[in-house]
Specification:
Blueprint (H helix, E strand, L loop, with lengths): L2 H29 L7 H21 L3 H23 L6 H17 L3 H16 L1 H10 L2 H20 L15 H25 L5 H11 L1 H14 L4 H26 L1 H28 L16 H40 L1 H14 L4 H26 L2 H24 L1
């Protein structure tokens, strides 16, 4: 190993240690308490880990490395007991010290990318104490139970399902493993959005609530703020902002789903969906800068996952997949577009996944699949728009109608022009 490589690896070990120590020093100032180690000590610990790995490498024995780890581990344990004796119970800093030593060793061994990633993750975890504490306080028994159910469907049920179809066309699309995989996929996206709301808090503002709510359920955002607009008509524009933000996020969600499942389809469908989303985003900015009042977005989102909901979505996805396949076989392109229009009324995720699957393995033309997804997304948007227009206040209707028309016309127009 040349000198440049050595300096790079040792420098990385010191820098990562310094970064972690800087966070610990900042946390100490916030809490106004003494800390076992600051940025300099953590930087030296990273250097010690790299030196220990180098000594073991040159001597051809792991004993020097384990000796250094053991020695520093004893110092760390002593520091913990002193803190505990003073009444400061907690192992966070001490464990971070041990992680820094190991990351320093990784730097010497040449795993620089992994070492940097672990250093960043460690710093982020140390910095997110307030958010994680808020998340834990916001958890309910139902949330814990839902998380366990999600773990069961993804880690226990999914692996044992057969990954093949046993029926003739059009029933050949009913593959148990792939259907349940889509259930796990969609449930995971919604679950992550729900976790984000729990961490950040739904009270952080109407616009942010609309953004996070779009990851969980844009329909829930639409229903909630439409109903509230009748009681608080003076806040029609902030409510419209949240609703439009949720609808715009829905387009991003669809693109993520397609991108994960079918890259070739993404290369076609992203243009009309991005165009509709861009128009929606412009209208979001218009609403943001034209609103006169702001309010907290205190929607109470329920956990989007439970076993019953997962089974219902699996059945819905299988049904939409079967109908789309039958429409393709017996009615051609027109049948696909009509089935997408109808399916989009109920759920845009199911038809998106169906089109991604059929265009990937079912022989469906990518251009038709792209148009079908756009039609479903616009159908879903128009239905939610109808909910807002019929259930919301007059002021909310005035604020939302231009956005609904713009997104629908642009999305469908671009899809059928290309």
């Amino acid at each position: 190993m040349d000198q440049t490589q050595l300096f790079l690896r040792f420098g990385a070990a010191i820098a990562i240690g310094f970064m972690i120590g800087l966070q610990r020093e900042f946390a100490k100032q916030k809490k106004k308490k003494e800390l076992v180690a600051g940025e300099r000590t953590f930087a030296i610990l990273g250097l010690a880990g790299a030196l220990a790995a180098m000594a073991a490498d040159h001597l051809g024995s792991p004993l020097p490395f384990f000796g250094v780890i053991l020695t520093l581990g004893i110092f760390t344990a002593v520091a913990y007991f002193i803190d505990a004796w003073r009444g400061h119970i907690g192992l966070t800093t001490e464990v971070a010290m041990l992680v820094t030593i190991m990351v320093g060793a990784l730097c010497y061994w040449g795993y620089l990318t992994l070492a940097v990633a672990l250093g960043i993750v460690t710093t982020a975890l140390l910095s997110l104490k307030l958010e994680t504490d808020r998340f834990v306080r916001a958890l309910t028994r139902e949330d814990i139970f839902a998380a366990l159910q999600f773990a069961v469907i993804s880690a226990i049920i999914l692996p044992v399902l057969p990954n093949e179809s046993f029926l003739p066309p059009p029933f050949d699309v009913l593959n148990p493993f792939k259907i349940w995989l889509m259930v796990v996929f969609i449930s995971g996206i919604s679950f992550l959005g729900y976790v984000a709301i729990k961490v950040i808090g739904p009270e952080q503002g109407i616009g942010l609530t609309g953004f996070l709510g779009g990851m969980v359920s844009s329909t829930a955002v639409t229903l909630s703020f439409s109903e509230r607009s009748n009681r608080q008509p003076e806040l029609a524009k902030p409510f419209a902002l949240a609703i439009m933000t949720a609808w715009t996020v829905m387009f991003s969600r669809v693109l993520i789903e397609v991108g994960v499942l079918n890259r070739a389809l993404l290369s076609v469908v992203w243009i009309p969906l991005a165009a509709a989303g861009f128009v929606g985003l412009l209208y979001v900015f218009f609403l943001y800068f034209s609103q006169r009042a702001a309010e907290k977005g205190d929607i109470q989102f329920s956990n989007p996952f439970d076993l019953g909901s997962a089974i219902k979505f699996g059945l819905l996805y299988a049904l939409v997949l079967l109908i789309s396949r039958a429409a393709q076989m017996y009615f051609g392109d027109t049948g696909i577009l009509v089935s997408s229009l109808i399916s989009g009324v109920a759920d845009v995720d199911a038809i998106t996944l169906s089109m991604a699957e059929l265009s990937n393995t079912g022989g469906l033309d990518i251009a038709i699949a792209s148009r079908a997804i756009v039609v479903a997304a616009m159908s879903n948007t128009i239905v939610k728009g109808g909910i807002a227009l019929m259930g919301g206040s007059k002021a909310l209707r005035r604020a939302l109608l231009p956005g609904i028309l713009l997104m629908s016309v642009v999305g469908i127009g671009v899809a059928f022009i290309l």
